[in-house]
Design goal:
About 20% of the residues lie in helices and about 40% in strands. It is of the alpha+beta class and about 100 residues long.
């Protein structure tokens, strides 16, 4: 049986490297190695394969990172995937969506 779950929070938050590493580790252990996308103020998106690579990104003021999204998909199985998004959106700032088995 596959299950889909979504949770959204509207809270101000500061996201540090500890949080980013926890999300990366959790997705990797439960689903697969995540792809990390940073959306910037200059309307560009940058894709990273690890949190370490994201942390090395030059976060200049005029192109600062405004949101970060983690996405993991089990190889060859589109029914097992998960997203974790940190956004500046006014109606949600933190969103988690998981699709897979109930254990996932």
């Amino acid at each position: 049986m596959n299950t889909t779950a979504k949770t959204k929070w509207k809270h101000p938050m500061v996201i540090d490297d500890v949080v980013l590493f926890k999300v990366e580790s959790l997705l990797q252990s439960r689903v697969a190695k995540p792809i990390i996308t940073a959306s910037c103020a200059d309307s560009t998106d940058h894709e990273f394969s690890t949190v370490n690579a994201l942390l090395k990104f030059e976060n200049a003021k005029n192109s600062r990172i405004e949101s970060v999204r983690f996405w993991a998909k089990k190889d060859g199985d589109w029914s097992k995937q998960a997203w974790v998004s940190f956004t500046p959106n006014s109606f949600r700032t933190f969103e988690v969506e998981v699709k897979g088995t109930q254990a996932t």
